[in-house]
Q: What sequence folds into this?
């Protein structure tokens, strides 16, 4: 059964149509990388998947019992101000907010999940560290940890490695890859074509009114890449 389906989706940005005819379907445990030039509609599509933007046409459907509140989200590393007044543990725990229901405080299960996720991602020792003291790589690891606390099923990532050095980028991709191998469905917007073809099961390439969706192995063939990005290495 499909976990998420986009059918004949059309989206606009500031009154201008940026996407149309977007069709794809992902099952649980698959990994989709969304690529395309700047202005091709990648971030607009991400907002629609997060229910922050309504489609002009078409629809987005969640299946297999997935609720919109169960989606984890990792934004670009500029999403939280450097002087945000919270420590690592508080930020990670906020990922469990969808478990609160009518309660006002986090329960033992939420705190346990936050602690275990921090341990798994190697940041438990930073739990009391102020956000403003972290490096860019540490901040992205904290945000990934928060996103994983929010979901066991679907993780959305918007340029998660933007501005990070190659070593930190490789570490971040490895954590995402491991989460996917454990069954988490991943949808990632990225300019990193090599990373997309290494880890993804599927690629969605947005190029104006041209849209490619298919297996990553098929996309990696020279004829497919040449058709959608002129044979260049990055999209």
A:
């Amino acid at each position: 059964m499909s976990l998420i389906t986009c059918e004949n989706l059309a989206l606009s940005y500031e009154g201008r149509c940026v996407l149309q005819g977007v069709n794809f379907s992902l099952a649980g445990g698959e990994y989709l990388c969304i690529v395309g030039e700047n202005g091709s509609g990648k971030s607009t599509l991400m907002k629609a998947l997060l229910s922050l933007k309504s489609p002009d046409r078409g629809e987005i459907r969640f299946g297999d019992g997935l609720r919109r509140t169960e989606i984890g989200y990792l934004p670009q590393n500029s999403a939280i101000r450097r002087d945000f007044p919270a420590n690592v543990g508080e930020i990670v725990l906020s990922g469990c907010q969808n478990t609160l229901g009518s309660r006002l405080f986090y329960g033992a299960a939420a705190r346990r999940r936050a602690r275990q996720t921090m341990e798994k991602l190697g940041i438990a020792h930073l739990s009391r560290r102020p956000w403003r003291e972290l490096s860019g790589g540490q901040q992205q690891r904290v945000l990934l940890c928060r996103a994983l606390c929010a979901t066991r099923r679907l993780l959305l990532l918007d340029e998660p490695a933007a501005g990070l050095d190659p070593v930190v980028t490789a570490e971040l991709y490895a954590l995402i890859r491991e989460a996917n191998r454990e069954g988490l469905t991943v949808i990632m917007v990225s300019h990193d074509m090599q990373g997309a073809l290494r880890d993804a099961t599927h690629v969605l390439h947005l190029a104006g009114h041209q849209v490619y969706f298919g297996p990553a192995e098929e996309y990696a063939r020279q004829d497919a890449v040449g058709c959608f990005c002129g044979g260049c290495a990055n999209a």
Q: What stands out?
A: The CA atoms of residues 158 and 189 lie 5 Å apart.
